[in-house]
Amino acid sequence: MKQISIKSLKRFALIPIAIVVILAIVFGSWSYLNSQKPYAGKVESITIGTVPLELATLIYIAEGQHFFARNGLNITIRDYNSALTAVYGMENDEADISVSTEYPIVGEAFKKENISVIGSIDKYQTTYLAGRKDRGIENISDLKGKKIGLTRGGIGDFYLGRFLNLHGMSLQDVTLVDIKLAQLMDALTNGSVDAVMVWSIDVNTVEERLGSNIVIWPAQNEQAAYSVIASRDEWIYSHPEAINRFLRSIDQAEQYTINHPADAKAIVQKRINHDDAYMATIWPKHQYSLLLDQSLIIAMEDEGRWMINNNLTTEKTIPNFRNYIYTKGLEEVKPESVNIIR
C-alpha cells in the first residue's frame, strides 16, 4: 500500500483552513454588499435638532453622502443656538433627535425627563476661556471678581466651574453673565464682560478683534466632551427600526470619514461655512466615532456631582445614568462599539 508523505498530510490539513477562509471572505463580501443596498421599505421622516457646528460632523456627512436616504430616512436638520435649546426642542417635539453635549442630558436626568442617549458621535476638547488684558486679566488668579460671559445651562458652566476650582476659586468668586452663543464675541469685544467661555470657532475671531489685548486658556483640563444623539423614550420605543437605520447611516458616515478624510472635511466645511485654516486647526481635535462607552457614563457622573455641589439641582443623589442610555439600537447595528457596564 502506498504511503502518504508528511508533506502531503500537511497539504491535506490546510484544505479545511483554506475553505474556512474562502467562506469567510465570501460571507463578508456578501454582508458588505448587502449592507450597501438601498432600503426598499417604508421611508421614515426624522427631524434632527443641532447647533450648526462640527460636533454634528457625522450627521452632515450622512446627509451629504445620502446615507440617510439609502437607509430609507427622510431627514430634516433644524438649527438651534445652543445644545440646551436643541435638547429642549427634542423634548418639546420640535425635533425627533437632538445633537448636544452630554451636559444638558445630565441636567434633564436630574429633572427625571423621559429621554435617552442612543449614541455618541464625537469626543473633543475645544473649549477655551478668553479674558481682556485691559481689564486686569493677565493670570488666571486675576479672574476673581470679574464678569464672565457664557451660555448658561451648557457644558461651559461645568468647564468654567472646574477651571476655577483647579485654580483655587469657585463660581461664587466671579459674576456670571448669561449670553447667547452667537453674541459672546460681541460682548467681549464691546467690553460688556471681562472674559468669555468660547469654542475653537471663536478663538481666531477674538484674536483678530482684540489682538494682543487678549489672553486665552484651554478650559477643559484634559476632560473630553461628548457629542451625543438623544431622543424621547416614547419616540425611541415606537421607532426601533428607524433608529437602527439612523445609526447604520451614522456608522457609514464614520467609515466614510475614515476612508475619505479630505472629502469628509470638505462636506462639513461647506455645511458650517468656515475657512481652510479653521478646518485644519479643528479637525484633529475631534474623534468622530459612533459608540456608547463607559467613559461617557463616568463623565456624566462627574458633571452630576459638580451640579449637586454647586446647587444647580435640588437633587442630592446622582441619577443612574445607565437608565438614560438606550443601547439596543447600537447593539444591533454595531455591537462592538457598545462598552457600558450594566
Q: Brief description of this entry?
A:
The chain is an alpha/beta fold and 342 residues long.
Structure description:
With about 350 residues, the chain is α/β, with parallel strands linked by helices. The chain folds into two domains: about 45-125 and about 225-340, Periplasmic binding protein-like II (D-Maltodextrin-Binding Protein, domain 2), CATH 3.40.190; about 125-220, 3-Layer(aba) Sandwich (D-Maltodextrin-Binding Protein, domain 2), CATH 3.40.190.10. Helix content is about 45%, strand content about 20%. It has helices at about 5-35, 55-65, 65-70, 85-90, 100-110, 155-165, 185-190, 200-210, 235-240, 240-260, 260-270, 275-280, 295-310, 330-335, and strands at about 45-50, 75-80, 95-100, 115-125, 125-130, 145-150, 175-180, 195-200, 215-220, 225-230, 290-295, 340. A five-stranded mixed beta sheet has the order 2-1-3-10-4, with helices on both faces. A five-stranded mixed beta sheet has the order 7-6-8-5-9, sandwiched between helices. A two-stranded parallel sheet has the order 11-12. Helix 2 crosses helix 10 (about 240-260), helix 2 crosses helix 11 and helix 5 packs across helix 13. The longest helix is centred in the first third of the chain and has 31 residues, at about 5-35.
Descriptive terms for the model:
14 helices, 12 strands, globular, 2 domains, 5-stranded mixed sheet, D-Maltodextrin-Binding Protein, domain 2, 342 residues, alpha/beta
Question: Portion of residues in helices?
Answer: 40-55%
Helix vs. strand class? alpha/beta
The coarse silhouette is: globular
CATH class category name of the largest domain? Alpha Beta
Low-confidence stretches: 24-34
Strand line-up across the major sheet: 2-1-3-10-4
Residue-averaged pLDDT: 90
The biggest beta sheet is recorded as: 5 strands, mixed
Element pattern in H and E: HEHHEHEHEEEHEHEHEEHHHHEHHE
